[in-house]
Amino acid sequence: MNWLFNNLDVIGSAIVAHLATALPAIVLSFVLSIPIGWLANRFRWSRGFLLTVCALLYAIPSLPLFIVLPLVIGTGLRDSINVVISMTIYGIALMARSTADGLASVDADVRQSATAMGFSPWSRFWRVELPLAGPVLLAGLRVVSVSTISLTTVGAVLGIESLGSLFTDGFQRNIPLEILTGIVLTIAMALVIDLLIVLLGRALMPWTRPVPAPSRAVPAAKDAVVA
Amino acid sequence: MNIFIAGIRWVLDPAHYGGINGIDTRTVQHLVITLVSLATAAAIAIPLGYLVGHTGRGRALAVAVSGGVRALPTLGFLILIALGVGVGFEAPYVALVVLGIPSILAGAYSGFEAIDRRTIDAARAVGMTEWQIVGKVEIPLGLPLLMGGLRLAALQIVATATLADYVGAGGLGHFIFLGLQTSDYPQMLAGSLVVIVLAIISEILFSILQKLVVPAGVAGGRLNDVRVKSSRSRAALG
Amino acid sequence: MIEFRDVTKRFPDGTVAVDGFSLVMPSRKTTVLVGSSGSGKTTLLRMINRMVDLTSGAIEIDGEDTSRLAPVALRRRIGYVMQNSGLLPHFKVIDNVATVPVLNGVPRKQAREQALELLDTVGLERSIADRYPSQLSGGQQQRVGVARGLAADPNILLMDEPFGAVDPIVRSELQTELIRLQRELDKTVVFVTHDIDEAFLLGDQVVILQQGGRIAQVGSPTEIIEAPANDFVAHFIGAEKGKRALSVRATATGEILVDGDGRAVGVLVPQPGGSS
């Protein structure tokens, strides 16, 4: 326990560094996946092509990517921007599929009636299609956020600070408590961010909130289940 | 770009093959760790996933455990085990098995759940036993989604096996960590490139397998896109 | 003969789908259970082959209490046809039809030969035998479903809204086909529908159900049309709207039949052959 109380500053710094790396990556993947998802549904060829590219990007292992990326973009090996960009690439690879699926799941009737009411293609996309795709986007974003927060720790083996630094430091100095602290904090951070995303989704998409079921038992509903 | 070329030269240099530190030896190590871990994860997760998928019981638990394990940082978990059991093969083996389980578990039970309830109802109504329903209906129709889960698990494991050498278990991570210590960028790059190639080969192999296991008569895309809520309560009535 | 004795079904959530239901379904006749959703008609049907277990009461088939029979064995000797056919999507048509005989241990080759004959019986071309269900039209799928239901040569055939999901023209064809089949095969058929016209067309015995599986009236179509037992039945069969009360009206060229609202429904012709 001593280690814990003597190193609160180290832990705090690791948390801040972790958030500073993971959060931009999560936000960027969400924002950038929107045009990609739109493009995927726009043309006959584009869906298969874009999703294949995404699958290939996602197939690149993280540690090798941290090593290859600096050569491509001209940063230093221990620059945390490498992790932000790598995590954004994975995030987009996961998220673009959700965005494409979500946009494709919008009912064609709704889309046509929106056009019939006089929405321009631009406003129809932002005010009808994107909000209705919201639940699918939300589900995708949750996966992206959990995996980003977990994967960000890997940068620590190259010396890029994050909660993962507690693992490498704890390993070198043989302090299991430090490693355990890192694990618990990473999971806790993933859960807290996940909760925030869910709450944000509820606030932004009030129509998806569950309606309290009518208290009267409806026999008709029962038959529908059995039939 | 020069370093890139140096990295590729490093991979192609015959001097870097053969012996304990040869690229060939390390690749074989990497593949062995990957395959053994994948097989163990599958042996644990497939029966469990089938049980959850067929009975509909324990689904909430399976989802919660899978979600929790996804948030678990494999690097930390790996190091923690290594401190307990010592450096070597055991720590990465356990960590990689745990890493692979959620995807395979999800593939197994969602494969069962994606099947039209009426198909299973009909199978029961014509007089199939529960084992026959599992063997003749649920397993074949659930294979594409199971294969999707195995594909994801294989990718995660082959990628993460790179970390095995951090706790002294060998594999292609060896070149990365050795290169890191000696500031030998071409060597790090060489190790990275070989891992990337392995990961992409794994993706390609599994995507072919995934297409092959789609039962004739079933449109491939349809099953893959289905994400149904559990309507298993009905099976309990039957 | 299928006999329901004071059968009750209460689901785990407390809903009572069927309460104290008693009825005899005579052998080699078609009994139609008709009612709207919530009437428990599907539950009643599914209790016969133990897809749903009884809460209390008993069901006997030819004097044998079904609760003493193993469900799987029971299901294999009862044909079952459901809405949307319930065919196995990864089995070819021929193997779908042969499913039950194969389960019963008939050699596959022999089961397939019998299945081909069954395709003839239900009016399908043998050329579709090697197709998969997704490659068939809705009407063809339903016929395959019927062929599968008949494959084990069961005495009893349960049909759960089998024609509910096909378009009206195909439905009418399938109904005609079923009447022909029933004349040839002489099965004990239990048929569930919410369509009263379908019930009157197919049923020797029609059971009109109210909520909770209560019998509003049992009888032949003639008996029910002649004398609806109560307001519910009258309403259900459309008698109160005058749909079943036809009268003759003279026109410039002959005589037509009109319903209670004065809408034309047919023409009056002399009885063919002179007897009813």
Look up the CATH topology of the largest domain in chain C. Rossmann fold
The greatest interface between two protein chains, and residues involved on each side, is: A-B, 45 and 47 residues
Please mark out the parts of chain B with pLDDT under 50 across 5 or more consecutive residues, or reply none: 220-238
Point out poorly predicted stretches of chain C.
Answer: none
- Biggest β-sheet description of chain C: 6 strands, mixed
Strand content of chain C: 25-35%
Largest sheet of chain B: none
Number of helices of chain C: 10
The shape of chain C is globular
Secondary structure category of chain C:
alpha/beta
Q: How far apart are the first and last residues' alpha carbons of chain C, in Å?
A: 28 Å
Average pLDDT value of chain C? 90
Query: How many independent structural domains of chain C?
Result: 2
Helix content of chain B: over 70%
Distance between the termini of chain B: 66 Å
Helix content of chain C: 25-40%
CATH top level label of the largest domain in chain C? Alpha Beta
Count of separate DSSP helical elements of chain B: 11
List keywords for this structure.
B: mainly alpha; MetI-like fold; 76% helix; C: 276 residues; alpha/beta; Rossmann fold; 2 domains; six-stranded mixed β-sheet; 13 strands
Structure notes:
- The complex is a heterotrimer of chains A (227), B (238) and C (276).
- With 227 residues, chain A is mainly alpha-helical.
- Chain A has ten helices and no strands.
- In chain A, helix 2 runs antiparallel to helix 3 (46-59) and helix 4 (62-73) crosses helix 5 (80-104).
- The longest helix of chain A is centred in the N-terminal third of the chain and has 35 residues, at 8-42.
- Chain A is globular, with a radius of gyration of 22 Å.
- In chain A, 43% of the residues are buried.
- Chain B is elongated.
- Chain B has eleven helices and no strands.
- Chain B has one domain: Orthogonal Bundle (MetI-like fold), CATH 1.10.3720.10.
- Chain B has helices spanning 2-12, 23-55, 59-71, 74-85, 90-113, 117-125, 130-160, 173-181, 185-212, 220-225, 233-237.
- Chain C starts with a strand and ends in a 9-residue tail after the last strand.
- Chain C has two domains: 2-242, P-loop containing nucleotide triphosphate hydrolases (Rossmann fold, 3-Layer(aba) Sandwich), CATH 3.40.50; 246-276, no CATH class.
- The mean pLDDT of chain C is 90.
- In chain C, 42% of the residues are buried.
- Chain C contains ten helices and 13 strands.
- By secondary structure, chain C is α/β, with parallel strands linked by helices.
- In chain C, helix 5 (108-121) crosses helix 6 (138-150).
- Classes of the chains: A mainly alpha (227), B mainly alpha (238), C alpha/beta (276).
- Chains in contact: A-B, A-C, B-C.
- The interface between A and C is medium-sized, with 8 and 18 residues.
